[in-house]
């Protein structure tokens, strides 16, 4: 009875938190696009570091305006090495992150800068809803329809359009680097022949296609409480953990049995190697918003153990897909000829080793694999040792494709 009472109290507190947000957002479904000029990723992080950076806007088939940044090596490095632009590489961020994730450490430690200094034509992807993208052609962010998407649309619309655009500008196949959600959408997109034919090779950090062995305590608690379904049912469409409400919601999930003194570890697993003194700086950029539907889709993967399209329920599935069950993304459809490089960690509580092995079994190819026993989920983008552990091997992998014959 005591355990049941605690859970009931916790659910009540969370419900009050959600309702208070809904009550203060009664105008959430209307309004026009905010006209205030927004800072750009180039201006915030890349140009100040001395790297040339250009902003691009790409429109998806369903009307979202995505931000893409194109980064070159620093002027001194370009002059010294006399390089033209190398092959294009697209960087794909994780959940509740955006393109800034690749530039949060020093130029010597951040993959975006390192790739540019090695002569790559670096393109930085930002999916819909993040602060570095640019809204929608007709929908305000205050409109619930603006947030009616999950990673399924990120794969089939956002990533597809990014790849098409970069391919058309450079007239070249591109390399793809993904982390976390960036790997989910990569796997899904690579099952589509019209998308994968424009990809030269991919390097995937913390690769995810299955999630049923997630061990992160805070995520397990949210799944058990069906928090995702509660939020969707109560009419909350945008998830923004930078907001006062979002931060309060996370804190409301903590108690004496699940301490939030180390919130990051309770979500990602214990990270070994990032600079904890820079956490305040990281939090100036992260987290970015996502949709409640996206979280719901991810939690469906955890509960069902599937890598499938969004499950609307039998009736709407029949309308949307012509079947009572959502169709799977079939990893065996990823071409055997597509070179893959993957790295996973022993302390990663989201990209679990068992789930990763499941992914490997379904792929028709045999990827190059790196295992880092001490790495947690965030180490793959923020570790102070990532250059030697990950980024140098990625660069060697890409250069082995023969696109750097002149250097």
UniProtKB/TrEMBL annotation:
One of its GO terms (biological process) is lipid catabolic process. Residues 1-27 form the signal peptide. Residues 111-372 form the Serine aminopeptidase S33 domain. The active site is at residues 180, 348, 377. It comes from the Eukaryota. Keywords: Glycoprotein, Hydrolase, Lipid degradation, Lipid metabolism, Signal. Transmembrane segments: none annotated. GO terms for molecular function: hydrolase activity, acting on ester bonds. InterPro entries: AB_hydrolase_fold, AB_hydrolase_lipase, Hydrolase_4, Lipase_euk. Residues 44-105 form the Partial AB-hydrolase lipase domain. Belongs to the AB hydrolase superfamily. Lipase family. This is Lipase. It comes from Trifolium pratense (Red clover). The lineage of its organism: Eukaryota, Viridiplantae, Streptophyta, Embryophyta, Tracheophyta.
């Amino acid at each position: 009875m005591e355990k049941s009472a605690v859970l009931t109290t916790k659910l009540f507190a969370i419900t009050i938190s959600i309702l208070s947000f809904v009550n203060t957002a009664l105008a959430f479904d209307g309004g026009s696009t905010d006209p205030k000029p927004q800072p750009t990723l180039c201006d915030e992080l890349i140009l100040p570091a001395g790297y040339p950076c250009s902003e691009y806007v790409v429109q998806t088939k369903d009307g979202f305006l995505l931000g893409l940044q194109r980064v070159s090596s620093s002027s001194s490095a370009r002059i010294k090495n006399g390089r033209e632009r190398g092959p294009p590489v697209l960087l794909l961020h994780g959940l509740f992150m955006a393109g800034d994730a690749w530039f949060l450490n020093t130029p010597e430690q951040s993959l975006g800068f390192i790739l540019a200094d090695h002569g790559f034509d670096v393109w930085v992807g930002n999916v819909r809803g993040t602060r570095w993208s640019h809204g929608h052609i007709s929908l305000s962010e205050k409109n619930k329809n603006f947030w009616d998407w999950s990673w399924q649309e990120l794969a089939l619309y956002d990533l597809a359009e990014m790849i098409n655009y970069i391919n058309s500008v450079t007239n070249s196949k591109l390399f793809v680097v993904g982390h976390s959600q960036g790997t989910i959408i990569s796997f899904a997109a690579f099952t589509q022949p019209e998308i994968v034919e424009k990809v030269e090779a991919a390097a995937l950090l913390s690769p995810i296609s299955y999630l049923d062995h997630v061990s992160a305590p805070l995520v397990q608690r949210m799944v058990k409480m069906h928090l995702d379904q509660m939020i969707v049912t109560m009419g909350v469409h945008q998830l923004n953990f930078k907001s006062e409400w979002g931060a309060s919601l996370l804190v409301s999930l903590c108690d004496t049995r699940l301490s939030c003194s180390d919130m990051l570890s309770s979500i990602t697993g214990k990270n070994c190697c990032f600079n904890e003194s820079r956490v305040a700086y990281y939090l100036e950029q992260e987290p970015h918003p996502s949709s409640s539907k996206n979280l719901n889709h991810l939690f469906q993967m955890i509960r069902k153990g599937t890598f499938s399209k969004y499950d609307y329920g039998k009736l709407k599935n029949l309308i949307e897909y012509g079947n009572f069950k959502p169709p799977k993304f079939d990893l065996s459809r990823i071409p055997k000829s597509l070179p893959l490089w993957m790295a996973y960690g022993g302390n990663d509580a989201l990209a679990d080793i068992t789930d990763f092995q499941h992914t490997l079994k379904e792929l028709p190819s045999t990827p190059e694999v790196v295992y880092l026993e001490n790495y947690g989920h965030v180490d793959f983008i923020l570790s102070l040792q990532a250059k030697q552990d990950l980024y140098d091997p990625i660069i060697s992998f890409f250069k082995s494709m023969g696109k750097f014959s002149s250097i």
